[in-house]
Write a structure and sequence with these properties.
Layout: E1 5-8, E2 15-18, E3 25-28, H1 31-37, E4 41-46, E5 51-54, E6 58-60, E7 66-70, E8 77-82, E9 87-89, E10 102-106, E11 123-124, H2 126-130
The protein binds zinc ion (2 copies).
One zinc ion binds at residues 9-11, 13-14, 71, 73-74, 76.
């Protein structure tokens, strides 16, 4: 694995450098991710101290425990982050992330028909997920 991973938004105003990350993709089909991501959101984790961001970023809080960040110029999704948690970065920003395996889908039973993903990775239902994690009562 190379020492850093470099990514950028569509317009290039925001660039992100990672010095550490977990090369595994999770996908989420909850209502918030469906809406924000055009049908679903995918992400991979990096610890906060390993993330360097250059450029102006806007943040939106769809819940009281997490932020979603995007480029104010081109609107590209950058990350989702629980307060004080790891960054969950958008794989599309990083060329190398195209080779990361999909290891999990959450809210799998809420997926829009077109967004059902192939593979034999674990598929976690809304009920399973919400029994173990913070969530909002707005899905469906
Ligand atoms: Zn941009
Ligand atoms: Zn979600």
């Amino acid at each position: 694995m190379s020492a850093t991973l470099e990514g950028r938004c569509l317009c290039g105003d925001v660039s992100i450098t990672l010095s550490d990350w977990t090369p595994e993709i999770s996908a989420c089909h909850c209502r918030l991710c469906r809406c924000a991501g055009g049908g679903l959101m995918a992400g991979f984790d990096a610890p906060a101290e390993a993330v360097t961001v250059r450029g102006e970023v806007r943040r939106f809080r769809a819940t009281d425990f997490a932020e979603r960040a995007f480029c104010p110029r081109c609107g590209t999704n950058l990350w989702l982050r629980d307060d004080d948690g790891d960054y969950e970065l958008s794989p599309g920003l990083f060329e190398a992330a195209g080779r990361f395996p999909l290891i999990r889908e959450v809210y799998a039973d809420c997926a829009q028909r077109f967004a059902r993903l192939a593979g034999d990775h674990p598929r976690i239902s809304r009920a399973e997920y919400e029994s173990h994690h913070k969530h909002v009562e707005t899905d469906r």
